[in-house]
Amino acid sequence: MRRLLLIPALVAIVLWAAPCLGQSPSQLGPLCTTETTPADQMIAACSKIIALKVFSGEKLATIYFWRAVGWNKKGNYPQVIADATEAIRLKPSVAIYNLRGSAYYDKGEYDIAIADFDDALRIGPPSGIIFHNRGNAWRAKGDFTRAIADYDAAIKADPKSAFSYQNRGISKQALGELDGALTDTNEAIRIDPSLPQPLINRAVIWRAKGDIDRAISDATEAIRLAKAKAPANIMTPPGSVLISAYTQRGLAHEARGDAEHAKQDYAAALEGRASDAGSKSNQATAMVRLALLKEADAAPRKAAAAPPAAEASPSPKPATSAPAAATATPPAARAQAAATGRRVALVIGNGSYAHVTALPNPTNDARAIAKNLRDIGFAVTEGINLDRNDMQTTIHEFLREAAQSQIAVVYYAGHGVQIDGRNYLVPVDIEFKAGGRITDAMVDMDTILAGLDDQIRTNIVILDACRNNPMGPQVATAGPSRGIEAGSGLAAPASLGAGSTLGAGTLIAFATAPGKVALDGEGANSPFSAALSRHIGTPGLEVQQMLTRVRAEVVAATRGKQVPWSNSSLLGEVYLAEK
């Protein structure tokens, strides 16, 4: 349960009968304004009442409110916002501001959601439900101190609010306070043992502590409860609880080394209908993890069918510096890896492009960063000048290793593009052909992020790539830059808190600002990677402070032509090189 619904006195208004052809408001009213009415019937009844044009002001606001509730049941948040806005125009109320703010929350527009919750608290009286929902928005923005303060206020107003205890526990977990998180989650379960959501959150805590058996047990009970009854509140998106429960149990099974049960859970998560940001994020994770496990099953058969080494493709193959023991660790020990601090990295450098502008430095950059990371204790999976098949294989191998890690770093140097708001990494065998689907020849960055999405891992993603769109007519004319075509750049992530990596945090660093070109440089390394290489191994240097130093050096070296940029949902200080 992420948010709560407030039903004020205004929605209990009796709808008087009025002359009309067909059904009257008195006949349609109960269908429109009864909480348990199915969504489609509720929307249809409310729409008919609105069409009769017999109500105005507060009464009409009530009808728009209930139609918005119907849209909310269907997960149609733009329609929720449209109807709630009309209700606010007619007669503002705490309930309507709460409903619209919750819809903005589910769309990932947290600042607007907070503004609506502020308005609800302003017109008052103060409500624990509004404090709870505003706390959710602060939590999604990564401001866990403010989130906890709002949950404190919600609990003070309603000491039996299981969901406020649950979400305060989530916020404490995000700050690394696992014992405090467990205490709050246990209290939520004590208050209402029929709720599946606190059990899902406790499963995450157990997995973070390395207790996989308890994680699986809690997720299993959450699935049973979710199937036994409908969500306790109509603000819960349909299917979101089961999607989350199956995904978390799948991650626990995978941590244990039980691939078969993990695959079953991921497949079950994908059967649900995701509507809110959290369930969509869970399904994205389930999809990627399921594909990785299926690929691992097929790997031995592929290996058996491979041609002799002398006939193999000359494309350079990925190399890994991970010690042999890392790949031979028994499942029971691997289940503890995240709790004991294992750190892994993926480093790819693509420069030898056959059909677009070649880049001289990415291979040098990748080798330098890979060495830096090895020197500070990372198990590094390294790939140089990879075609699409090799890129996918290398990335998937890394994602399987990352499932048992505490910190995962991804570094990519080479061409990168944005298409329709999504970022893609470009293999060396890319070739643009008229009529072809260009994205099929590249690697979707969102796939990597979904594979890393987990509430117990910190992810650092560093892209020393262009910020250009290859779809124009002048392909490969950018010269010695990290770009295929001068133009619009890589898409900045709109939000890192919309349901993804809420427990550990993610930082994405770009070599240059949106809409600009990342230079390849005149020396052996790009300006960005040269600066990064100088600072990434500095003991005791916090990662965001490190990027600030890198930014200053790059700006100075390029005379202001290139300004590195980052987006972060990190929840505290992160050190790549220990103090």
TrEMBL record:
Residues 302-335 are annotated as: Disordered. TPR repeats lie at residues 94-127, 128-161, 162-195. Residues 341-470 form the Caspase family p20 domain. Residues 1-17 form the signal peptide. SMART domains: CASc (SM00115), TPR (SM00028). Pfam families: Peptidase_C14 (PF00656), TPR_16 (PF13432), TPR_2 (PF07719), TPR_8 (PF13181). The keyword Signal applies. Keywords: Repeat, Signal, TPR repeat. SUPFAM superfamilies: Caspase-like, TPR-like. Belongs to the peptidase C14A family. This is Caspase family protein. It comes from Bradyrhizobium jicamae.
